[in-house]
Specification:
With 202 residues, the protein is an alpha+beta fold.
Length: 202
């Protein structure tokens, strides 16, 4: 699946983790599937700008291998200046996350839904950028993937910085999860947002 308009890529069920469709939406925002070396660069970017307590490059590569499309980068002049990481979860993964038993530094791969298995939730574990262009690509791409492909699923993420909190709670529709001040959730929607619905009938 190559190119196209965003509205043409909306999933009518709102729970699509098909790698080709995910890559097609990401490409509209100049995000490309991360190679092993780019995963390492993105991980180093996150460790430098957000927290050193992030999963190793090997763990992130294993997640990418499991999903086929979970980590994307924005590259400027050969350098990764933006990285986006997320994974579709099985019901067991969703429950572990909400109960505080999900370790994002050492993903239990059997909690992640493989391609072809309808996911129960999505966990966004990496959103980082070092430039304005990288930030625009990562935030825009993340929002588009959520609203075009995962609109019927709860989207979870950890609040790691004040800037992240501002973007999540004021721009992306996330709410804090009761009982866990660092966990935020964008609740599932009953239909795609206005402007994302044209492709649903296609």
């Amino acid at each position: 699946m190559d190119g196209g308009k965003l509205e043409d890529l909306v999933d009518p069920e709102g729970r699509c983790a098909d790698p080709e469709r995910v890559k097609a939406v990401a490409a509209l925002f100049n995000l490309t599937l991360a190679s092993a070396d780019q995963i390492r660069q993105g991980r180093e970017l996150g460790a430098r700008l957000i927290s050193s307590q992030v999963a190793s490059a090997d763990v992130l590569h294993a997640v990418q291998s499991r999903t086929g499309a979970s980590q994307f980068v924005h590259v400027e002049e050969g350098v990764v200046d933006g990285a986006l990481g997320f994974a579709a979860l099985r019901a067991t993964g969703r429950d572990a996350l909400v109960e505080g038993a999900f370790d994002p530094r050492d993903f239990a791969l059997d909690l992640i839904a493989p391609p072809g298995e309808p996911p129960a939730a999505v966990f966004a574990f990496g959103v980082v950028a070092s430039t304005k262009a990288g930030g625009s690509a990562v935030i825009g791409g993340a929002a588009a993937i959520q609203e075009a492909l995962f609109w019927a699923l709860p989207i979870y993420t950890r609040i790691a910085t004040a800037d992240g909190e501002r973007v999540l709670l004021t721009r992306l529709g996330f709410r804090r999860v009761q009982g866990d001040t660092s966990l935020a959730c964008r609740p599932p929607r009953t239909r795609p947002l206005e402007g994302f619905s044209a492709g649903a009938a296609a």
